[in-house]
Amino acid sequence: MVDFDVAIVGGGMIGLATACGLYQQGMKIAIISDNHQLYRELDEHQVEIRASAINYASQKYFQQIGIWNDLLASNRVQPFDSIDVQEVDGFASLNEHSVAYPHSHLGYIIENQLIQNTLYHKLAEQKQVHFFYQKVTDLFFSSDRGFIQLANGNQIAAKLIIAADGANSFIRQQQKIKMFTQPYKHHAIIATVRTEIAHQACAKQIFYPQGIIAFLPLWKSNESCLVWSTNPQNANRLVGLTNDEFNYQLNQIVEHYTGQCELISERYTFPLIARYCVNTVKSRLILIGDAAHTIHPLAGQGANLGFQDSKQLTDLINSHYIEHHDIGLSRYYRYYQLNRHKDTLIMMAAMKGIQDIFNGNNPIKNVTRGVGMNAINRLNCLKKQIIKYAME
Asked: Are 229 and 186 in contact (CB under 8 A)?
């Protein structure tokens, strides 16, 4: 059995960022993942399909853990300076530019694999960080340790275990921690598209009666990450089309805003489900990221919620570790849990409200959303508060 200060289950962006936030205090850290390819070489000419909208708070966290300059050096970080929200066959619209805010950009679009590669590089250089590429088969606790049983028969002990193992978290299920779920009744299709009109560092969202189509600008001037959210039947139909048929369906909706769109990658689809875990903190165990909550991707805030879980948690662990406290005691994390619940619930309520008001083609809804969104667009103080909350 090997003994650690912290064991992190999950080798995705949130788990690796958490390890980066902790190792600098000299803690001995285990990272456990059944993914043997946490690092994957990127094609220098081709963008990745999965990307995240990174807000100012997450960017500051990246600076804190020492990866921001490395990300910038890749020349694959795309700032976005404006947002443009439009409604097809309606009059609702909202737009904003970074010049109205104290930050140079509204946010950044960064490929998930680039973030993961950069985090992995940072951690691979640290002697006190150890990777275990194994499945977790069991988890149990004593008064002063948590114990992780691995598929190869080895066992890991740690003062604190952090579950960052995703929406279908084995740790959460094994510990029978209750999670509330509510399907959004939408599936997301993600792909990379090339647009006739250059994105000009603008993130676009287009609402239409059957769903939402978002374009996240990538580091190539005419390429964007497409996130198309629609009902499951329509999503399955769209995924089954040929590329030409898919392009035709997409252009019927968005050509007015982007010019001709062309699919240049595979398409992936997955169901969208709101998940919320009330008890994310137990003695010697804390759930973060998608293991604790998932939200609709329409505002691109899912990754940012996870990175803020990581930032606030690592700051707290570090402060108690420096004071030589037992970092596994749950009483140290009660305020953290309440604070993260507040941010998560606000964001979940906002996403659900926006989806509901734009869903369908009810005439009353059409007028309500048009009047409401245009009023927000004209009331600069209110608009700034909403966008500033999403940024920070």
From this structure: yes
Q: Can you give the pLDDT at residue 230?
A: 94
Task: Kindly write down the DSSP assignment for every residue of 187-226, as one continuous string.
Answer: EEEEEEEEESS--TTEEEEEEETTEEEEEEE-SSTTEEEE
> How large is the average pLDDT for residues 371-382?
44
CA angle (108, 113, 119) in 5-degree steps = 85
**Cα separation of 368 and 53, whole Å?**
28
Give yes or no for residue 43 having a pLDDT over 60: yes
Q: Hey, CA dihedral for 240, 241, 246, 248, is it positive or negative?
A: negative
Structure tokens at 226: 């497409």
User: CA 100 to CA 7: how far, in whole Å?
Assistant: 43
Which residues, including other chains, have CB under 8 Å from residue 323's CB and lie 6 or more apart?
none
> Running DSSP on this structure, what letter comes out for residue 175?
T
**C-alpha closest to that of 24 among 128, 168, 156:** 128
Answer yes or no: is pLDDT of 41 > 70. Answer: yes
Structural domains in the chain?
A: 2-38+50-71+112-180+273-350 (3.50.50.60), 79-109+182-272+358-391 (3.30.9.10)
Please give the helix or strand (H or E) that residue 148 lies within, else none.
strand 146-150
- Show Cβ contacts of residue 142 under 8 Å, excluding neighbours closer than 6 positions: none
Q: What percent of the chain has a predicted confidence (pLDDT) above 70?
A: 85
Q: What confidence score (pLDDT) does residue 319 get? A: 97
**pLDDT at 98 (0 to 100):** 66
- Cβ count within 10 A of residue 237: 14
Name the H helices within the chain. 13-22, 56-64, 68-73, 112-124, 170-174, 232-239, 243-258, 302-322, 334-358, 363-378, 380-391
pLDDT, position 219: 97
Q: Are strands 29-32 and 2-9 parallel, antiparallel or unpaired?
A: parallel
Question: What is the number of helices (H) and of strands (E) in the chain?
Answer: 11, 20
